[in-house]
Amino acid sequence: MTKNLKLFALFSIGWSIIFFSVLNWGIVNPNHRWPVMWVGAFVYGIGFSILGKYLGKREKGAIRHNIRAAYVATSTGISGIIGALWVALFHPDQWWQIIAFAVIAGGFTWHVFVKYRNSVKGMKGEELFK
Amino acid sequence: MSSTKSSDDQYEQKLLDNWEEVYKRGQLTLWVLLALSEGAKNMAQTRAWLAATTKGTITVEERSLYRVLQRFHTAELVDLESRPGVKGPDQKIYSLSATGERVLATFIDRNIALFLQPQIQKLLSIH
User: Fold this and answer.
1) What is the pLDDT of residues A66-91, one digit of tens each?
2) Nearest CA in chain B to A61
3) A85-121: per-residue pLDDT in tens?
4) Which of B26, B29, B75 sits opposite A123 (nearest CB)?
5) DSSP secondary structure code for residue B77 in this structure
6) B71-94 b/e (C-beta count within 10 Å ≥ 16 → b)
7) Is the pTM of this model over 0.90?
8) What torsion, rounded to 10 degrees, do the Cα atoms A41, A42, A43, A45 define?
9) Number of Cβ pairs < 8 A linking chain A and chain B
């Protein structure tokens, strides 16, 4: 794990805790349930995207397979784990949501892995040796 | 009769041109890595080496070669060193990295050494 990726992982943990706290607060209030969910999810995703791009650009080439895949797997994995922990700790009666987190996080990470598994430093073979 | 011959020639030339275009595109990596395996070079020296060694068969524009070398540097096939220029800006010197050497050696062993087999040499000499 590179230095920037570790920083990104730390950010992902903090950002996910903030997101789930906001979601937890908003979801029980029928007046702003939907705006909180939609705006919260959008800001949550944008935050990952902006910081991932910023940190990733500064260590381009440091990761031998694909830097994008590494950042996506980190954010998705941490988001899934925090989400599952949140349910397990605060809403154990809704345990089945953990399965949903695992399926979404696992499926997305698998998709990224399959898409980029043959890439070299983020480049496809045709791009590198064209 | 002669118009048929001319038509055949034109057609064969077209076949050759297309084949060579695709073939040369795939050859650039090998020739660039071979150039650097001979010794460290700047971009102009690499271009000159390619043109001279391949007798003008493999030519590449400066900008394209720069992009190729940058990609190879990112992929750790090529090392890059900046040396102070005599008059102008710093010179970028490219050399084959340890990874590049091993990858090139394995590539040659798997793909080029085939042409050195006596039966293939014989077939090539017939043509």
Assistant:
1) 788 888 888 988 998 898 888 888 88
2) B74
3) 888 888 888 888 888 888 888 888 888 878 877 788 8
4) B75
5) S
6) bbbbbbbbbeeeeeeeeeeeebbb
7) no
8) 80
9) 17
